[in-house]
Amino acid sequence: MAFFYRRLAKAAPIAFSHAFRGQPKSNFPSFRVPFGAIAAISGGISYYYYFSSPNLVHLDQINEETGPKVALNPDNWLEFKLQDRAKVNHNTHLFRFSFDPTAKLGLDVASCIITRAPVGQDPEGKTKYVIRPYTPISDPDSKGYFDLLIKVYPEGKMSQHFASLKPGDVVDVKGPIEKLRYTPNMKKHIGMIAGGTGITPMLQIIDAILRNPDDNTQVSLLYANVSPNDILLKHKLDVLAASYPNLKIFYTVDNPSKDWNGGSGYITKDMVVKGLPGPSDDALILVCGPPGMMNHISGGKAKDWSQGEVSGILKELGYTEQMVYKF
């Protein structure tokens, strides 16, 4: 394992199909990593939450008679221990957290978890927390662990907290938080527009579709990044696209290298028209990325975190609120 992490630290983009060897294999072909699918930041939630003392409920308190053992709890904060971590590229890290190996995480497609970290005290002396949502990229059916892919920002309170963690440290987690409830064949064609770590909820859905032989959904992904080296999970995405004819991917970057053969610049109307399904009751467009990209493509969520109105490129092209989902 130590050798793997030394080698992984030098790899960019990472070859995720070789990550975390020794874990149980999924039903995917051998090239598939043991990951289901974001986030990374989902929906741009950014707020502080206050608790006088953490209410930590541990897995061994779950009543096994009520059904399969589930690690997550939507009502209480749980401590999950960091098992290991690896550097993916210059600013992104992979974190594996462990729990009871006989339990499942309890994550549905597509949903996320929320994490919290202490950031001092308020004027009344109560502990103040920063809270951020993330989408695990491990297979939802994996037992005993889940993986988070996190980009570390210089001013990011939560991402800096994750960057400071060492194996054996714990993080408070609550969830799952349901986003889009995906069901097989719910649409004939799903288009996806992702920026940076916004790829994680997309992967959760892509993996669910591709591992189900009865799901005939066509998937088209437009994935935008700053540079080719910033494209997360590119190896995995390329292998999946080469192996499954119902998955099409187009990359675009702001700063292309000399040997780059993908798109250049921000996602445009032309890219959407050529790469994604047109407005239709049989199509759904999913969008996840930084606020600037969201505003450009679809508009952000409403102040109450509901979906809000569609604006930007998608509105100009005729997509309605029923045809667009914003993570």
From TrEMBL:
Keywords: FAD, Flavoprotein, Mitochondrion, NAD, Oxidoreductase. Pfam families: FAD_binding_6, NAD_binding_1. InterPro entries: CBR-like (IPR001834), Cbr1-like_FAD-bd_dom (IPR008333), FAD-bd_FR_type (IPR017927), Flavoprot_Pyr_Nucl_cyt_Rdtase (IPR001709), FNR_nucleotide-bd (IPR039261), OxRdtase_FAD/NAD-bd (IPR001433), Riboflavin_synthase-like_b-brl (IPR017938). CDD domains: cyt_b5_reduct_like (cd06183). The keyword Transmembrane does not apply. Its cofactor is FAD. GO terms for cellular component: mitochondrion. Residues 75-183 form the FAD-binding FR-type domain. FAD binds at residues 132-134, 149, 151, 157-159, 200. It catalyses: 2 Fe(III)-[cytochrome b5] + NADH = 2 Fe(II)-[cytochrome b5] + NAD(+) + H(+). Its EC number is 1.6.2.2. Gene3D superfamilies: Nucleotide-binding domain of ferredoxin-NADP reductase (FNR) module, Translation factors. It is an enzyme of class 1 (oxidoreductase). It is found in: Mitochondrion. One of its GO terms (molecular function) is cytochrome-b5 reductase activity, acting on NADH. Belongs to the flavoprotein pyridine nucleotide cytochrome reductase family. This is NADH-cytochrome b5 reductase.
